[in-house]
Amino acid sequence: xxxxxxxxxxxxxxxxxxxxxxxxxxxxxxxxxxxxxxxxxxxxxxxxxxxxxxxxxxxxxxxxxxxxxxxxxxxxxxxxxxxxxxxxxxxxxxxxxxxxxxxxxxxxxxxxxxxxxxxxxxxxxxxxxxxxxxxxxxxxxxxxxxxxxxxxxxxxxxxxxxxxxxxxxxxxxxxxxxxxxxxxxxxxxxxxxxxxxxxxxxxxxxxxxxxxxxxxxxxxxxxxxxxxxxxxxxxxxxxxxxxxxxxxxxxxxxxxxxxxxxxxxxxxxxxxxxxxxxxxxxxxxxxxxxxxxxxxxxxxxxxxxxxxxxxxx
Length: 313
Fold this sequence. Notes:
The protein contains ten helices and eight strands. By secondary structure, the protein is of the alpha/beta class. The protein has one domain (2-125, 135-307): Divalent-metal-dependent TIM barrel enzymes (TIM Barrel). Strands 1-2-3-4-5-6-7-8 form an eight-stranded parallel β-barrel, surrounded by six helices. β4, α5 and β5 (162-166) form a beta-alpha-beta unit. α1 runs parallel beside α3 (47-60). The N and C termini lie close together (6 Å).
């Protein structure tokens, strides 16, 4: 297995060439890249940029562990919007192959692509809820969503890559049971999970139990810690997740993928021009102190992995 890093906490916005080099020189052997929207494909991930990114990865001795694509309307109640998201995913498959990555990733999706409150806001809200429109056909939306996921999984399989779904609070596949239900319904060998315990732990799952239950359907991981009440993303060891037990579960289940560190809620993180959610803002590129947090985590997690009997490249 290898340790890697998600690109966006280091540099939220494109271009990413400098951030890739910085991550590699911090000791990581893998990185993830992301396409934020339709414009990312036309304005950034051009053929020349793809060639340049591959050359940088090769030069640093790194792999692109997965390519993340935003497809929010994959669960929309509007057939045209779902179709557009499927087409966007298929464009992502083409870029994933061109970039040389074995995995394309999306998060799981909100029912009907409704807007839900952020779990990290819960401690500050007197009433934490979501008022729903009346008359929604929930069964139909589930079947439409599975059909869209099935088309995406087929596109990935046809291209010779895999598709990792990342659990997220309040969405289809928010926890272990939801993920297993999706995997069974889609029934594709190309579909698996990008396991992010900072998301499942906060909705009630023990990460090591999830690892045992998902087994070889865990294709890739995001690692960060939290308080178990919200899905903030801290350095492992700063929250309540038992990382030693999770590493043991991975050793027992034969995990041999990439564990990508994703610290979105620590001082010095990049938020870029999009100024996305989170308490820490204002850095186009992550600070030196942020990089130190990653180096500390890499040493800590490598030790736990080796203690558990995992081979770390």
